[in-house]
Amino acid sequence: MIRRPWPAFALLILVLLGTGVGSAAAATAPDRGPELDAKAWIVIDARTGEPLAGHAVNRHLGMASTTKMMTAYLAATKLPFREKVTAGRYNADPAESLMGLQEGQVVSVRDLLYGLMMLSGNDAAVTLAKAVSGTEKKFVKLMNRKAFQLGLDDTHYENPVGLDGPSHYTSAADLAKLGRVLMDMPRLRKIAGARVAKLTSYQPPLTIETTDSFLRDNAWARGIKTGHTLGTGYTLASDGRRKATELIGAVIGTPTELARNAETVRLLDWGFSQYDKKVPIKVDRPVATVPVRYEDEDLPVNSKRRVRIGIRDGESLTVVTALPDEVEGPILRGEKLGTATVRLNGEPFATVPLFAGRSVEEPGLIDRLLGNPLWIAGLLVLALCAILLTLLLVRRRRERNARKRLKRVLRTGR
Questions:
Q1: Is residue 117 located within the same domain as residue 195?
Q2: What are phi and psi of 232, to 5 degrees?
Q3: pTM of the predicted model, to two decimals?
Q4: Which of 35, 144, 146, 251 has the most CB atoms less than 10 A away?
């Protein structure tokens, strides 16, 4: 029996196509980030929330004291910062992190938030939870409800402190997302990035320093929160800003604090390497020029603040101005004339006002006349009429003089 070669040819073609597709995919596959030993990790663009790289980003893991990020968020949104709260009794285990509150001590919400984030105080967490909801149990329900509202689908809380539990977990993706929410709140951003703070509701005021070694050791770091338990390992939600770019990272489950910090630095270093800093608007360079009526020289317009932005390969950056088509004096130097908007991939990133780079004097009458085409045309017509009238008068005078001479000649001839 003669075998047909078509199946073999078809198989060969599929193999070749598959090899080609695989090679193309490998060539265009994005860099997935550095190799880290953490159980899960992620880095996102703080501006957009876009993930840049990650590993096991949705895996459910313990979160330790990064739990306090949700505690801080709810306290900051539910309580006035100046409100005074009375601390209750807190029975702590020997290894717990504490702010050092005494039973009956009156402390402001502001100071409790600093103690919560900078010292990772479990006593501050419980005090804030009871101030918001009355009991820890009610506060935990509020935590889970807010997690659902924020889209933290891989997060569930059992307590406001961060103690390990079977139903107390988060994911690297959720931790970074929550970190972005906190850093979008100016007052919490300040607290999360504080290295030193003064607790003003204490008598006398008490100065505290952060226990976050990542924040202390890296000048470009902006926060956010550390965590550690024996079950979870070392965890860190981080924020950093370099090259006009802000990144948020989450590293969960490293064996040591040193490893946690080192892997976070490697993660954010890789993230920053994906960006180039651009300065589309500078203070010492005109953003645009505007034609000046009755003048040959255009008017430069400047911004009083620069705009810096980090962009990645493939992203487009444009500057769109909103200015009059033409201006007329008098204009003072520094007078606002319009705006400039920096757009990243077509979306607004920053808008700045634009000001006159020099003064423009009010045009005089001659300038206005010479600068108006109708007036110029009218003047030309008048000049032409005057010339024609003058020629006509001269001609008539010559004709009149000629007649007079002719009359004298005729009289003399008689």
A1: yes
A2: -90, -30
A3: 0.80
A4: 251
